[in-house]
Automatic annotation (TrEMBL):
The keyword RNA-binding applies. Its EC number is 3.1.1.29. The active site is at 25 (proton acceptor). GO terms for biological process: protein quality control for misfolded or incompletely synthesized proteins; rescue of stalled ribosome. It catalyses: an N-acyl-L-alpha-aminoacyl-tRNA + H2O = an N-acyl-L-amino acid + a tRNA + H(+). Keywords: Cytoplasm, Hydrolase, RNA-binding, tRNA-binding. It is found in: Cytoplasm. Belongs to the PTH family. The record marks 15 as: Discriminates between blocked and unblocked aminoacyl-tRNA. Catalyzes the release of premature peptidyl moieties from peptidyl-tRNA molecules trapped in stalled 50S ribosomal subunits, and thus maintains levels of free tRNAs and 50S ribosomes. Monomer. This is Peptidyl-tRNA hydrolase. It is an enzyme of class 3 (hydrolase).
Length: 193
């Protein structure tokens, strides 16, 4: 199979279950759900330990992935999906929350460190490589002395919720740009905003 025929794997990170649905840590799931609406299908349980949806986005074959494990152990299902769909790591993009960016800021990159993000740490360990794309969605820093681990497991605040649907939509646009146009074009479009 030629590399252009291989799907792009887009992973949204989050924690399963209704208790976590509105948490800052679940922004990857929210973006994956928006992408699923665009692709036009429903996620289905997969033997990789994730929910997957195959379709087309920005003219490319994509597989949307939501690990069914908790964030800190998401590496196993992600690595399982990478193996099952036989995608090279440069065809993998992980959408996740980022404390070091203000709310709604979007940054895309290839490779790099995990910056204390346990979901990314688990994925890197399971893949044995850091060379995959990241779509980072800013959630801002916790107020005062609040523990970052507690902050990410809290729901978005009322002010953030007013703009959340718009920002999720914009992040889905960034993923579509990455899939359809490549990293540099996506960075040029979304890093300026």
């Amino acid at each position: 199979m030629a590399e252009d025929d291989l799907p792009r794997l887009v992973v949204g990170l989050g924690n399963p279950g209704p208790r976590y649905a509105g948490n800052r840590h679940n922004i990857g799931f929210l973006v994956a759900d928006e992408l699923a609406a665009r692709v036009g299908g429903k996620f289905k349980a997969h033997k990789s330990g994730a929910e997957v949806l195959e379709g087309r986005l920005a003219g490319q074959r994509v597989v949307l992935v939501k690990p069914r494990s908790f964030m800190n152990t998401s590496g196993g299902p992600v690595a399982g999906a990478v193996r099952f769909f036989k995608v090279p790591l440069d065809h993998l993009a992980v959408v996740h929350d980022e404390l070091d960016l203000p709310f709604g800021a979007i940054r895309l990159k290839l490779g790099g460190g995990e910056n204390g993000h346990n979901g990314l740490r688990s994925i890197t360990k399971s893949l044995g490589s850091r060379e995959y794309h990241r779509v980072r969605f800013g959630i801002g820093r916790p107020p005062g002395r609040q523990d970052p681990a507690d902050f990410v497991l809290r729901d978005f605040g009322p002010v953030e919720r007013k703009d959340l649907a718009f920002e999720v939509d914009r992040c889905a646009d960034a993923v579509a740009a990455l899939v359809g146009q490549g990293l540099l074009a996506a960075q040029n479009s979304f890093h300026a905003t």
